[in-house]
Amino acid sequence: MASTSSLHAKPHLVVIGNGMAGCRAVEELLARAPDLHRITIFGAEPRVNYNRIMLSPVLAGEKSFDEIVINDQRWYRDNHIALVSGDSVVAIDRAAKTVTARSGDVVGYDTLVIATGSDPFIIPVPGRDLPGVIGFRDMNDVESMLAAAATGGEAVVIGGGLLGLEAAHGLSLRGMKVTVLHLMPILMERQLDGAAASLLRSQLEARGQIILTGADTAEIVGNGAVEGVRLKDDTIIPAKLVVMAVGIRPNVALARAAGLAIGRAIQVDDHMVTSDPSILAVGECVEHRGQVYGLVAPIWEMCRALAEGLAGRRSGYAGSVTSTKLKVSGIDLFSAGDFAGGEDCEDIVLRDIAGGTYKRIILKDDRIVGTVLYGDTADGGWYFDLLRNRRDVSGLRDMLIFGKAYAPLESPA
């Protein structure tokens, strides 16, 4: 075990953010250079690091909080990491190389990692500040939803994207009558085409959810607490709970106040270094080569690149191709790449509406550029590997839609 004096002799790495990105970056660094730094992690929540991706199964009653913990107290202790939980950082002084916490504590750093993630976008309508209006980003939000669901009643979820549908599913399982309001004409328009979205909508409605597309929220109504949502066509949907799931925004307030370069998010290079060489950033709060990612796979790749850089290695991050799955039990959905298509693309489609199966593969120059699978997603990983590795599939074209078993090909490395 390292002594206190030897720990303090090491350069101090301070991480702002005790979430998935911040802790994963530390894990990757410890795997490469376990004795390089003294480490302090600040977390806004009074909890250890947990898997936010699994909040939906916790809401649905399929997992407990303990089952989604990634790093327990022992991990911090065994790796000599000082965890400051429930005390968020409110200021960065780049000249003095210090951070100031809400409690007033000031801590110096040699290297700083910003992993502040993102915040839910709360649409700016009247009534948005009423008690009973929440986002869906952390365990506090889940606890609020569970408390509301304990006495039943009606809930409205604003947003028919990935997160909104998962929230609606969980609240429905908990006994609430749920209405989903979505501004766009189809659900999950960023991941699905019209045919797959139609199948999804039918399946959700069969489970008792009310889905309203083209629904534009005018205000949240209530006297002292939420009582309903009024749409711009003056329809009022009763609700004692309103979950805002219309999107997220990178949390760049600290970085901006510190004078770091900000575009859509905190701008970083291939090793996650910001415009200040002593400050790195990783996760949903960063912009890399013009892209901002909100999915876990690219964030893991960023964390590896950050650790490689700190450990003195050359391997950097070059961007990611992303894929999506919906975490709703009994619904199999997979989407990857660009499914918009175009004049220079061709579609291969298999549609079995009665069987609830839909597959669409988009090809360009004999390579897969996008895929949407609904009902049968068993080959999603195979298609994704072909897409990500830009494999020529001209020799497989006739059988490609039927999956790997019918179009044998050596698995991409």
TrEMBL record:
ATP-binding listed as a keyword: no
Its Gene Ontology molecular function terms? oxidoreductase activity
Q: Which SUPFAM superfamilies match?
A: FAD/NAD(P)-binding domain
Which cofactors go with this protein?
FAD
Protein origin, superkingdom: Bacteria
UniProt xrefs under InterPro entries: FAD-bd_OxRdtase, FAD/NAD-bd_sf, FAD/NAD-binding_dom, FAD/NAD-linked_Rdtase_dimer_sf, Rubredoxin_C
Q: Which residues form the NADH-rubredoxin oxidoreductase C-terminal domain?
A: 323-389
Q: What are the residue boundaries of the FAD/NAD(P)-binding domain, all occurrences included? A: 12-288
- Which family, according to UniProt? Belongs to the FAD-dependent oxidoreductase family.
Protein's name in the database? Assimilatory nitrite reductase large subunit
Please give the organism. Answer: Allosphingosinicella deserti
> What are the top taxonomic ranks of the organism?
Bacteria, Pseudomonadati, Pseudomonadota, Alphaproteobacteria, Sphingomonadales
